[in-house]
UniProtKB/TrEMBL annotation:
<protein>
    <submittedName>
        <fullName>Uncharacterized protein</fullName>
    </submittedName>
</protein>
<dbReference type="InterPro" id="IPR046037">
    <property type="entry name" value="DUF5995"/>
</dbReference>
<dbReference type="Pfam" id="PF19458">
    <property type="entry name" value="DUF5995"/>
</dbReference>
């Protein structure tokens, strides 16, 4: 299932979210977040907030289609990138809602955004899209901050205990957001300058991002107990958590 425009991107995200509610799948957490980001991008395009609004829609569609392909291929047990696989397979174990969100962002920004950016500019200089690249990156990053602020609705003790895990939290955000923002652009630049080595670069990058995803899901043992306590108090079914995220972000 692939989109041809940003309206179709939102419709496909609707399908994924509703499917995850029915199946109680944690994969719906990222889909909810991503739908909110996409709606914000669409509003920005309508209001001419980007340097090149037509190009931004093209980037958004190419970007989203990489996620859709990974998602539906995973559902069909097809081979997908290692970084998406570790994110999707995280549903087989108990993890915080925030961890599910961040592993999705890790794969999507660190790998997918770079490739979609190169495909968007085509034969033009990669630097020509830098401003809009940063815009879409920032929109996704801002959504994570909103989720963190509202996690109390899912786990009553989240806000109480997370300050105690500040070291883990800072590293987690650095891996998934700050590192992603800089690393994704560097990878996009590298790809644009070495198109003949694209497959080799993709494999190398995928392994690196898979490792970052592993770190997001497996923090140091000294802090894992704290995350387990927060997880224990995450209330409600997966479906109810998805619905809470829909309301809160």
């Amino acid at each position: 299932m692939q989109a041809n425009n940003i309206t179709e991107v939102i419709k496909i995200l609707d399908i994924i979210v509703e499917e995850c509610k029915i199946t109680n799948s944690p994969l719906g957490y990222f889909a909810v977040l991503y739908r909110k980001v996409t709606i914000n991008v669409k509003d920005g395009i309508i209001n001419n907030r980007f340097e090149d609004n037509n190009r931004m829609e093209k980037l958004d569609v190419l970007f989203a289609n990489r996620y859709f392909k990974a998602y539906f291929d995973y559902k069909k047990n097809k081979t997908i990138s290692k970084c998406w696989r570790i994110s999707f397979k995280a549903i087989e174990k108990n993890h915080l809602v925030l961890q599910h969100l961040l592993t999705g962002i890790n794969a999507h920004i660190n790998l997918d955004l770079s490739i979609a950016t190169v495909e968007t500019v085509d034969n033009l200089p990669i630097q020509s899209i830098k401003k809009d690249f940063d815009q879409i990156n920032q929109l996704l990053s801002d959504m994570v901050d909103e989720v963190k602020q509202n996690m109390g609705a899912i786990s009553p003790i989240f806000k109480l205990l997370m300050p105690l895990a500040k070291q883990w939290d800072d590293k987690l955000i650095q891996f998934s957001i700050e590192t992603a923002r800089d690393g994704a652009w560097l990878f996009a630049t590298d790809l644009s300058q070495n198109l003949d080595k694209r497959e080799e670069l993709f494999i190398q990058r995928d392994l690196i991002i898979e490792n970052l995803g592993f770190k997001l899901l497996n923090p140091k043992k000294t802090l894992q107990w704290l995350l387990n306590v927060i997880l224990f108090f995450e209330s409600g079914s997966v479906k109810s958590k998805i619905e809470t995220l829909e309301k809160k972000i």
